[in-house]
Amino acid sequence: MVHLLGMWWPPHASIGGGIHGGLFLFFAGSTLYYFLQSLLEGPGFVPLGWKPENDENKQHLQFCTVCNGYKAPRSHHCRKCGYCIKKMDHHCPWINCCVGHNNHGYFTMFLINAVLGCTQAAVALSICMYHALNRVWYIHNGTGREPMIYLTLTTLLMTLLAIGMAVGVVLAVGALLYLQIRGILRNQTTIEDWIVEKAVGRREEQGLPPFVFPYNMGWKQNVKLVIFGGRFDGIHWPVRDGCGEYDLTKEQKAQKQDKRVRSRLYVAVSSYSGRWVPLLSRPRAALAAPCTDEPRLPLSAGDVIRATRQRRHWLFGEKILMDSSHRGPRGWFPRDAVTPSDMLPGDMPDVYDTNKCD
């Protein structure tokens, strides 16, 4: 981009060129700055062993056995980060950590500058490419005021690659930016979107009153909660009139209880090594492997698993540990490695309750 700008619209030749070049460098520098801020600031972690000030409120919260403490409202445990994240939105592989309370604003600004900078680059590089391909025509038929863009084979290939990458960022990151802005205006994280969506269906099915998201304070106040998030500790949040501090966590617990009731028990009839693509042992399952980074669950014959999700050739569930008060490992496993159990989920000893870490 910098190389071609020197031929197409030199920054030193006019005020417009200087503004255009400076704007691109501003977007590029801001993208890098907010990327590093998102990474270095981190999402903010719930203190290990945290519990509410009032012991009576423990019944409304989930307990995380990994962090050995209660999950604060709006927090979730990230198995990749290894901690409970304040106001967790999602785990981002770009910054190798979660997007949460502390870095949500930085991450959004990173997306905004990346999309704006790549939009400018895609347009400018496309114009430069057009002038370069028509350079000979301009020499013979032009007015003499057209910019002359000279490309070697190397710079031609690099320009094509740069245009493709810039357009890819605009489309892919632009879609993510749209979801982030929509969530910010509603003060609703990606995870909370799923909870609210499931709450609508669950309450309609059971004839319960509609769920009211307690943290939507109006779009102006919602934006301030992200921009000036440092004024809050990430644990205690303002709620709208008529809502309680633990309304969302109560709904989460109710949904998990319903999921446990709908789950089904399976018994392993053969072992499964935990390979992501068991092509030799189970070719059918290997060709239809789940497209997700969730773990696989190794099995031995006789293991009992509580399955909560299913696909044609795969099941997702949790291994039942009969001699432990902790939750067993979870993950995907091939359907042909297990058989349905005659026992109902309620017949199994409940070695953990719904407060435990999910």
Descriptive overview:
The chain is of the alpha+beta class and 358 residues long. Helices cover 42% and strands 12% of the residues. The chain contains 9 helices and 11 strands. It has helices at residues 2-8, 15-41, 104-133, 135-141, 153-186, 190-206, 219-227, 247-262, 283-287, and strands spanning 63-64, 69-70, 76-78, 83-85, 90-92, 97-99, 264-268, 304-310, 314-319, 330-334, 338-340. The chain has a 5-stranded antiparallel beta sheet, with helices on one face. The protein has a two-stranded antiparallel ribbon with strand order 1-2. Strand 5 (90-92) and strand 6 form a beta hairpin. Helix 2 runs antiparallel to helix 3 and helix 6 (190-206) crosses helix 8. The protein starts with a helix and ends in an 18-residue tail after the last strand. The model is unreliable at 349-358 (pLDDT under 50).
List the keywords.
about 350 residues; alpha+beta; five-stranded antiparallel beta sheet; 9 helices
What would you say about this model in short?
With 358 residues, the protein is α+β, with helices and mostly antiparallel strands. Helices cover 42% and strands 12% of the residues.
Give the strand content: 5-15%
- Average predicted local confidence, pLDDT: 89
Order of helices and strands: HHEEEEEEHHHHHHEHEEEE
Note the total helix count: 9
- The oligomeric status of these chains comes to single chain
Structural class designation: alpha+beta
For the report, how would you describe the main beta sheet?
5 strands, antiparallel
Strand runs, count: 11
Spatial shape: globular
Low-confidence stretches: 349-358
Main sheet strand line-up: 10-9-8-7-11
- End-to-end separation in angstroms reads 47 Å
What percent of residues adopt helix (DSSP H or I)?
A: 40-55%
